[in-house]
Structure formats: structure tokens, C-alpha cells
Predict the 3D structure of the following.
Amino acid sequence: MALRPRDIVELPAPFAARAAQGAAWVREQGAAGRAVTVVHHIDADGVTAGAIAAEALARTGVAARMRPVKSLDQHHVDQLVAEDHQAFWFCDLGSTAYMHCPATPKLVCDHHQLVRDGAEDSFPHVNPLLDGLDGGEVSGAGCCLAVALALDPRNVDLLPIALVGATADRQDRPLHGINALYLAAAQKVGLVDAAVDLSFFGPETRGLVKFLTLANEPAIPGVAGDATGAQRLLRDAGVDVDAARTWGDLTEPQRRAVRTALVTRLLDAGLAAEIPRLWRTVVRIRREPRGPTRELQEFGTLLNSTARYDRPDVGIAVARGDRGTMLEEALDLLDGHRKHLVGALDALAKKTVRETAALQWVDLEDAVRDTVVGIVAGMALGSLGLRQDKPLIAFAWTPDGRTKVSSRAPQQLKGRIDLSVAVREAAAVVAGQGGGHPGAAGATIPRGAEARFLAALDTTLAGQLGLASPTAAPAAPRGPSRQAKLAV
Ligand SMILES: [Mn+2]
């Protein structure tokens, strides 16, 4: 008997029905002889989503064109509509922009905040938010995978790529809901291995000392930023220090000894509360060799080094399985990405992070690419000793003369604020556009509108956080006030 999609993974019924509609739409485009334009986001989730769509189309014999976009704000929608496209498959975006191309056949696979205008169900639309599911339980790639599985259950081999997209969108803390169903399915068919292990970044590529010293979530006293201390801890745990050795190269008893030493270190420092943050479910793709495509977080970082640096073709090819010249190019881009992030974080550290009642903000101007300012904001929030009770807003210049806004909420505000709503509303006040997720959102606004944007955002966030509403013009910088008190 032929394999059915639900033999692989039993998705929630309304979501599965939407995926089936998406699959029917793809077949319809093929039958009508239309080429499908895959419009995808340039972050790692958008790249994996686009790769899954491209692969599914190719395997079904439907002609495809790739069209990466930074966002679907009016500016990009106008460009897209002016071009000659026969059908659109939107990947990891589209739920706020579907209304702008009413005449073109379309399929939207998205998990971002949704605009309901009454027409959101008039076309195949796969978004967990449509059915009251959570936008954090499945990624854009996961939405595309649902369609691919409905098209042909043999697309099951694309499961690990969907998990890479989810992980890159930071949905792996832990993978839950539909993502957890995907993970269980991938384990069941032997595509991935999953184990609770150290949460640090880089188990397959970083040398052991770097793996321990660069980790700062949580930072281990006497190890974080201290190569000698890390070497001593490893030696005391009975592990020979060898620059080429990664965490993944150690035996399980060796890893256990190091984990025990790290727990002891936190306890000795009175940091027991930090211990749970030491762990995450680390997922490795079985068919991948040692290197940056084996572990989900590292694979996501590799893909984040491609389309954000104007090489979406490289990211798509690697996500689709190219392990030859395109992987070589991706590794070069990864090197450049690392250097760019180090430079941008350094620039941020030298700038004054200013505060209003409900947020902290920094203007990076041209010190960072607009395509990675969100990554930089997320890293800064975790590593530069910034306040953990206010979201961080970072500005960067776009090449077309506007300002990109990226916002990230610290873990402790989870469930208390919704940046997607606040950033979208504040952007609208200054004739910009934005949106995203509760804990991470972005916008593009006119250059020069930053202060008015911050004032509007501060008011909304103060309301969400239950702070006294800011009285005086809150966007006026209150100085380098790392000591400023919350206006409660
Ligand atoms: Mn996404």
C-alpha cells in the first residue's frame, strides 16, 4: 500500500487540511502549465522554506523560479507585482501581503503574524495562526514541508531541512507542537538523532576550548572568555585538549564528565538557577558528515551566511543537498558572516545603548548590514550585559536610504510582550511597515523617523508591560543610562 502523509506525521486536522489544499494548488499550476515563482525570505528559515518548495516542485515536475526578498513591505510588493509572474508560492512570508496581488494564483506558507481582511481563506493559506495554533510551533519551512508531504510522502527526506528552519527561527527551546511531531517523525524514520546535551553553540565545528569559552548563555565562571580556565576544566575532567577536537568527537563518558564539572562550577558560584539553561535537545542529521551541516543550529548559521549576503542561490543549493562547490562557497560566506558579526558587535559595544521607560535602543547606522541587524541585536542582548527586563531595539541603514529596525525580547519577558504587534503599530505611525513574532520583530521606516517611531513603540510597550505610561517625550535620549530605573 502506498504511503500516506499521515503515516509519516499526523498533523493537527485543520493544518493538514490546509496543507492538502496547498498540494492541490501545486498540481493545478502544473496542469495549467504555469511556472511557480517561489518567493522566499532571506533568513535561514526562509531559505529552507524556499528550498523545500523548490525541491517539491522539481520532484512533481512543475517549473519553478526563485525570487528571494528581504521582506514583503509595500516597496517589495510593488516590485514583485511589476514583474512578470504566473503564480506565487510565498515561503516564510506572505500572510500580511497576500491582498496586494489579488489576480495572481498564490499559495502562502507562513507563520508570521497574520492580517485578516476577510480574504485570508480565499486561496490556499498554510499558517498555524489561522487555526489558533502557535506561530512558534512551526516555521515557514515546516509549513512548506506540510505541503510537500501532502504532495508526495516520499518528500519525507526533507524533514531535517524543515527542522533546520525551525531551529534557525529559535523555535528549538524546545521544539514543540508541530515541530515536535516533525522531530519524532524524523527520529522514527532514522533521519536524525536527538539527545539532551550542552546547549552551547558549535558542537560539531568549534574546537573544544572555543566551544566552552565562547558560550555565554549561561556564562560559566572561570571558563567563559578564559581559555586557560577552560583547558584546566577539560583536563580535570580527564579530556585531552586538542585544537581539532570538537564536542561531537568526545565519547559519552567524557561529555558526561565535562557536563558534571560545569554544573559543579555553577553550583559553587551560587548560580544554581542557571543550570537548566545548560541543556537543550541537540539534533544531528544522520546522513550529514562531520561539519557545519550536521547539527541543526550550525546548519542554520551556515544558511544565514548566504542569502543575507546576496547569495540566496548558495543557500538554496546547500539546503537542497549540494555538498560540492556550493558548500565551498557557503563556507567562505560563513567566514565573512562571522567577521561581519564580530565587527558589528564591536561597534555596538562602543555605542551608547539608551533607554526609555519600556525599551532600550541603539542606532548602528552603517556599522552593520540591514540584513543581519536582528542577529546582532539577539547576540548583544545575550552577551553585552544589557538589561534583561527591556527589549532591545536596533537601527541600521538600508542601502536604499531607509532605516531597518530589529527588536529582540529577553527571555524573561516571554509571554508579557508582543513585539510583532507593537513594532507593526509603531512603524505604521511613521508610514513604515513591520511585523514578525512576539519575541522578535522588524520593520523598515523612513530615515529620520527613528525618534517618533521609538516614542510610539515606547507607549505601546509600556502598556503591554503594565508600566506607568511615559509622560515626557520618551524618545529623547535619556543619556547613557544603564542605571535608569524602570518607570513603575
Ligand atoms: Mn520564519
